[in-house]
Amino acid sequence: xxxxxxxxxxxxxxxxxxxxxxxxxxxxxxxxxxxxxxxxxxxxxxxxxxxxxxxxxxxxxxxxxxxxxxxxxxxxxxxxxxxxxxxxxxxxxxxxxxxxxxxxxxxxxxxxxxxxxxxxxxxxxxxxxxxxxxxxxxxxxxxxxxxxxxxxxxxxxxxxxxxxxxxxxxxxxxxxxxxxxxxxxxxxxxxxxxxxxxxxxxxxxxxxxxxxxxxxxxxxxxxxxxxxxxxxxxxxxxxxxxxxxxxxxxxxxxxxxxxxxxxxxxxxxxxxxxxxxxxxxxxxxxxxxxxxxxxxxxxxxxxxxxxxxxxxxxxxxxxxxxxxxxxxxxxxxxxxxxxxxxxxxxxxxxxxxxxxxxxxxxxxxxxxxxxxxxxxxxxxxxxxxxxxxxxxxxxxxxxxxxxxxxxxxxxxxxxxxxxxxxxxxxxxxxxxxxxxxxxxxxxxxxxxxxxxxxxxxxxxxxxxxxxxxxxxxxxxxxxxxxxxxxxxxxxxxxxxxxxxxxxxxxx
Length: 507
What we know:
six-stranded parallel beta sheet, 16 strands, 40% helix, globular
């Protein structure tokens, strides 16, 4: 049994320090404030916690009243994965759109503007960017969250994103190490496995993480994936060979290492969250992300006590837990110093959070317009069309509460636009009947992954070849429609750019 060199209070504070929990509600519950006073150093925010920039600024101020250097983290990728604008859709296109433009200055500027909005609301750690190389075009969870399938492209845009975000005073958390792009399984539901050789992993998966580290990424998020060439037994999050041997020692990363959500089934269904957390810290991880699903005090106490018990029973070295807690506090200290600094790296003063779109720049819309790809000739819509949106089941990272599509944007430009949403049970005949004489705009998402969607679209095009098709996911299928418009993402600004192209109105 390990001989404890610190007091029980120190051990408990260290165990709390390595947790990044979530909670429910738009104000901080009493239990969370109490745990911050006891040593909790990080809090994770999700869409359920946010209603407006002003409310978010008040919430983060409430947290900082308890601890001035608290890390306030969020999963704000822009594009399809947004928490700031979860109910309206993002003002920024996502990685896939930025990668399709392939202008690193644009990516850097978009990330800086996004970071400025986060900083203005008091958020100082962003669980972004995704550095995954989307080498499996059927990937069910990454897709448009990736800059693309080319490792060199993903590398240069990951670095630019990190630089832009951190220049606004918000720490980047590059994910999902060592790369979630070549998976056909969503780790929210099960454990994905990548069976490629060591050389391929180094040339493809690891390249963007090398670039992120060189760019100074303050943190890296581990993936719950099994890479047999690196560790055939444990997923990356729980693997000393991957976390310590590869990321810390071989790649030389000295910042904070954070887990992906520990309650995701890839970990929880095999190890349980308590055992998984202990193994993750023992492997070299520094912080446990939890709260996407389990967002209560009981979860925090379960994980705290599991870590304390593991030290007392000799399973987890006390020094390893202390080192992890120290790294969390070091990043918290960095955010505090940056917030108090002056100059181009300083965050915007808290309490003055702007409304969405009110910061004097529309760079997100500019980027979305540049990303647009049109195949065929556009005959601008003169009359209100019928928009048929084909909705696949959203993955958990994206969620189903964020609106997407072009109907709202087309309605703003062409009042009277009608719309319908269709799923796997619907037919082309139903769409045609609903549309009547109106011109049809068919909106699809990852049509190459959904045979039902392709079949319905084929039926519509056979009857109405003048149907315009808007692809808002991965643009892999052959273009069809008159015209075919690829937006490279489903953010609100992507819908706006498509609507402008369809109507001939816009910048």
